[in-house]
Amino acid sequence: YKRQYALIPNTSKLAKSSSHVNASMLVATTHAEPGYTTSKMIYVLIPYKLKAYANNAWTSPPSAMFAPMVASSLRDMSYFKSVVNGPFAGSVDYILYTTIEVLQQEFMQPISQVRLKVFASILDVKSNQVIASKEFSQQAPAPGNDPYSGVLATNVVANTVADQIALFVKQSVK
């Protein structure tokens, strides 16, 4: 690919938590649904027909870049004793699993938009029980109708969803 782009965690807009838990959180490597497992940048002209840009790509699959964004948002809140990224061989109290269900730039309106849908679940390691799960969906208009505009909008929606997941985790783990 001639041009490669990254998903970069922004400094979270989340407030530092006034309360804390004496617990550790592992943010597991994000999985992706079929069609979204590649570093190809996906776009859609008509519903359900996934296409990929020929000369533009992500530096790695978005699923590899998303978990560090979520971990960064969780760390910024300072709610957990520690937040680590997978793979990790030590012991932790909770594991956050995420799956990218949809990540695409859509050209079905005059101005393209990016749509991201992520499913998240939290496992309590001690009880081996899922304590909460939720689907997150976010869309943002791209500033233009080209691949780089899709990159800009993708970074916006990915950081927004990462912050939403971090808040969900905080509300779910007491």
Could you please describe the fold and organization of this structure?
The protein has 174 residues and is an alpha/beta fold. The chain contains two helices and nine strands, in the order βββββαββββα. The protein has helices at residues 62-77, 147-172; strands at residues 3-5, 21-27, 31-32, 40-44, 50-58, 80-85, 94-106, 113-124, 129-141. Strands 1, 2, 3, 4, 5, 6, 7, 8 and 9 form a nine-stranded mixed β-sheet that branches. A hairpin with a 4-residue loop joins strand 8 and strand 9. Helix 1 crosses helix 2 (147-172). The protein is elongated.
Decide which structural class fits the backbone: alpha/beta
- How helix-rich are the residues, as a percent range? 10-25%
The low-confidence parts are none
Please state the overall shape, judged from the principal axes of the Cα atoms: elongated
- How many runs of DSSP E, i.e. beta strands? 9
Assess the beta-strand content as a share of residues.
35-45%
Order of helices and strands: EEEEEHEEEEH
The averaged pLDDT comes out at 94
